[in-house]
Amino acid sequence: MASLVFIHASDGNNALLAKEVETRAVEMGHEVEHVSLNAFDFPVYTVAREQSTPVLEGLDELKTILDKGDAWFVFAPEYNGSYPPVLNNAIAWLSRDGDDFRRLFRDRTVALGTHSGGGGQHVIMAMRMQFSFLGCVVIGRSLVTNRKKPANPESIDAILNAMTKR
Q1: Is 8 exposed, middle or buried (0-12, 13-18, 19+ CB in 10 A)?
Q2: 29, 100, 140, 148: which has the fewest C-beta neighbours closer than 10 Å?
Q3: How would DSSP label each residue in 108-161?
Q4: DSSP label at 39?
Q5: DSSP β-ladder status, 31-36 and 109-115
C-alpha cells in the first residue's frame, strides 16, 4: 500500500484522467490524494515578489501534501509544446522555499500523464526533463491519451506498479 499524490495542472480532461487512474490505484489498495494546482492561485514567481512576500498563502499546505506522498503522478496538458504555466509556477515557488531547493523533489518517484489535443509527447518530455533535473526518479513509461485514444488499462497498471515497486 502506497500513499500517492495526483497533481493536476488543469481541471479539465487531465483531472478526469487522474480520477480514472485513481479508481485503479484504489482497487490495488493504494491511497490517493488529489492536488489541483489551479486551486492555489499563486502569483507569478519573481525574485522581487519572493522577497516582498514573506509568507505565500497555501505554499506550506501544498508542500505538506506533496511531502507525505510516497510517489506523485503528474497530469498536465500540452501547452505550447511544454507544460502549463501553473505547473512551472508551482515548481518555482516550491523550489525557492527553504535552503535546499531539491529537498522536496530528491529521490521522489514521479509518473507522468497527459490528455492532450495533440500528440502529448512534448509535455511528457518537458516534464521528464524538469522533474529529473530536480532529482526525482521519473518512471520510464508514461500515460498519453486524447479523445481518440483512451487510457490503456495495462499501461495504468504498469505505471502504478512501477510507482509503488510492486
Answers
A1: buried
A2: 148
A3: -EEEEEEE-SS--HHHHHHHHHHHHHTT-EE-S--EEEBTTBPPPHHHHHHHHH
A4: G
A5: unpaired
Domain regions of the chain by residue span: 3-164
Q: How many Cα atoms occupy the beta-carbon half-sphere of 6 within 13 Å?
A: 25
Q: Which fold has domain 3-164?
A: Rossmann fold (3.40.50)
38: which DSSP letter? G
pTM of the model: 0.95
pLDDT tens digits along 92-133: 999 987 777 788 999 999 999 999 988 899 999 999 999 999
How many CB atoms are located within 10 Å of the residue 16 CB? 15
Cα angle 64, 68, 70; round to 5: 145
Instruction: Give dist(CA 84, CA 10) in Å, integer.
Output: 8
In this predicted structure, what is the pLDDT of residue 44?
A: 96
Asked whether the predicted pLDDT for residue 47 surpasses 70, the reply is: yes
